[in-house]
Amino acid sequence: MALTIEDLTSALSESTLNSLTSIKRGVERETLRVQHNGKLSTQPHNVALGSALTHDFITTDYSESLLEFITPATSSIDATLAQLKDIQKFTLANIDGDWFWPMSMPCVVESEDQIQLAQYGSSNIGRMKTVYRQGLKNRYGSMMQVIAGIHFNFSLPPAFFQQLQTLVNDTQPLQDFISERYFGLIRNYKRFGWLIPYLFGSSPAVCPSFLNGRETPFDFSKTAQGCLYMEYATSLRMSDLGYTSSAQSALSICNNSLQSYVDSVQQAMNLPSDEFAKIGVKVDGEYQQLNSNVLQIENELYASIRPKRVAKSGQKPSQALQQGGVEYIEVRAMDVNPFVSTGIDKQQMLFLDVFLTYCTLEDSPATDVSEMRTFIENTDAVILQGRKPGLLLNDRGIEKTIIQWGGEVFAKLQMVASLFDSAFETTDYSQAVSGELDKIHDVNKTPSARILADLITGKENIVSWSLAKAKRYVDEITDHQYQQFSEADFQHMAQQSIAKQRQIEAADTLSFDQFLAQYFAK
Q1: How far is the C-alpha of 419 from the C-alpha of 165, rounded, in Å?
Q2: Are 84 and 68 contacting, i.e. CB atoms less than 8 angstroms apart?
Q3: What single DSSP character describes residue 203?
Q4: Measured between alpha carbons, how far is 269 from 135 in angstroms, rounded to an integer?
Q5: Helix segments in 38-173, DSSP class H
Q6: Which of 93, 155, 354, 425 has its CA 20 to 30 A from that of 115?
Q7: Distance CA 465, CA 264 (A)
């Protein structure tokens, strides 16, 4: 019989909790560059920032205008947020007056032609990254690719897993146990992950330019200032309107074990698509996509959470996982928080520590396709109707309201928060959980409700509302004093990254056609 969360938290609280203070976190924050009038910036990635191909902390995502800031893994939340501010300060000083858009859904984009594919130089790997984005453009359109999010990387230390393995009388090799527990975390995240868009969803509205006259199945309302919104939505970014793919809806990625995950991902990688085959791969001598499969590469798999391991040069993500096991997990379902300059705040990170650790400790039975479909339906319901009074979700065949189910989950989260408070000698974790519980009981405290309250009752449209925050954050970031890095550090990193890109370009010996053939043959 599996130990309950009550059993485990009690047993762990009596053992050494120092391991919890060694949790590692990292943040990947995406943001569009915008002009002062709220329109998309069309400037290329500035050379002063370094190479988008090889810089560790400052790069681009889909387009030249979509910046991505990456913090190194650290064991201090305060240090992570300070790193993020340092990165943003240097970037802001070197983008010729552009601002950072503080929302997940994009700014004013007058035409998809304005959205320029990210460029990574002339090397084979650089060209591959751009062709991959060309494929995304041809498959899904450019507009979907300028939606921004927050990715939260999280790992528990080996010492924590050693303690846990002893408690549950598990005798397999430690790395196998770690991978098994991380997949248990992933399954539980999908069970209870509807909480994330409810608590943190910050995209209930869009600028009309995002639709650009396209018809959608959504029943939008319009504010007096012309903003489009859905009355009870929490995260349009995570809906079919945003960063999802209907072409992947038939994929069944299995999270019951490391091997089943790798097998199902590799199967998906080799699944041909009649729809994408119509695009062509190399047309009139120009690549339109890397291949015509449902997934060009593994990164195209849209998932709310992923198992991860730092890959060696030339390794595919699934190969790295299979050879070394799961090293950390990446939460990808987070909207950009428009109420803070960093896009994520300390309370969110404290809560995620607790929630993800809870998902690791809570019993997590294997799932089948039917149960996974229920998880998706619960999350989709919260994404579009999360603040609707009386909304019912399906908990293993029992219908529950968010207040009912949320109350049950939070009772267990508070146990885990107490572990963290003891380990860190603080009350921050319990306070963070209590702060999020307030949103369960009062829907008006959710960020999606706060945003709509401003847009519906105020005199601003979504562009002016966002620009006011963007300007305030420019001032805040400019006034910020470097803490974890210095300006000289970033200048040195920029020069090093450019030199590294040139070395990669000079080392190429294969044609691009040969390079791709070799890459996919591995």
Answers
A1: 17
A2: no
A3: B
A4: 15
A5: 77-92, 124-140, 158-167
A6: 93
A7: 43
Among 72, 88, 82, 61, CA closest to 25 = 72
> What pLDDT is stored for residue 313 in this prediction?
76
pLDDT for the residue numbered 1: 57
Of 331, 324, 286, nearest to 305 by C-alpha is 331
User: How many domains does the chain fold into?
Assistant: 1
**DSSP one-letter string for 153-172:** EEE--HHHHHHHHHHTT--S
Distance (Å, whole) CA 315 – CA 119: 22
| Angstrom distance (rounded) from CA 435 to CA 179 | 31
The answer to whether residues 452 and 446 touch, using CB atoms and an 8 Å cutoff, is no
Report the C-alpha gap between 251 and 401 in whole angstroms: 29
For the CA atoms of 332, 337, 341, 342, the dihedral, rounded to the nearest 10 degrees, stands at: -20
List, for the chain, all residue ranges whose pLDDT scores fall below the cut of 50.
none
Classify burial at 419, counting beta carbons within 10 Å of its beta carbon; exposed 0-12, middle 13-18, buried 19 or more: buried
Handedness of CA 258, 262, 263, 264 (dihedral sign): positive
506: helix, strand or coil: helix
Residue 228 falls in which region: left (phi positive, over 0), alpha (psi -120 to 50) or beta? beta
Q: Identify residue 198 by its one-letter amino acid code.
A: Y
Which of 363, 357, 368 is closest to 255 using CA atoms?
368
Under 8 Å between Cβ of 124 and 507: no
- Domain containing 70 equals 5-521
CATH assignment at residue 472: 3.30.590.20
Distances (CA, A) of 54 to 222, 278, 497: 43, 33, 5
Q: What's the confidence (pLDDT) of residue 229?
A: 95
Residue 189 near residue 331, CB atoms below 8 Å: yes
Provide long-range contacts, Cβ within 8 A and 24+ apart, for 251-257.
251/294, 251/301, 252/369, 252/372, 253/301, 253/303, 255/183, 255/186, 255/187, 255/190, 255/367, 256/183, 256/187, 256/366, 256/367, 257/180, 257/183
* pLDDT value of position 509: 97
Left if phi > 0, otherwise alpha if psi is -120 to 50, otherwise beta: which for 443? alpha
Rounded Cα–Cα distance for residues 59 and 68 (Å): 5
- The answer to whether the CB of 429 falls within 8 A of the CB of 437 is no
H-state helical runs in 345-479 = 346-361, 369-385, 402-424, 428-441, 447-457, 462-479
104-125 per-position pLDDT tens digit: 999 889 888 999 999 999 999 9
Entry field: residues in the chain = 522
> Pick from 361, 312, 306, 350: which is nearest to 329 by CA?
306
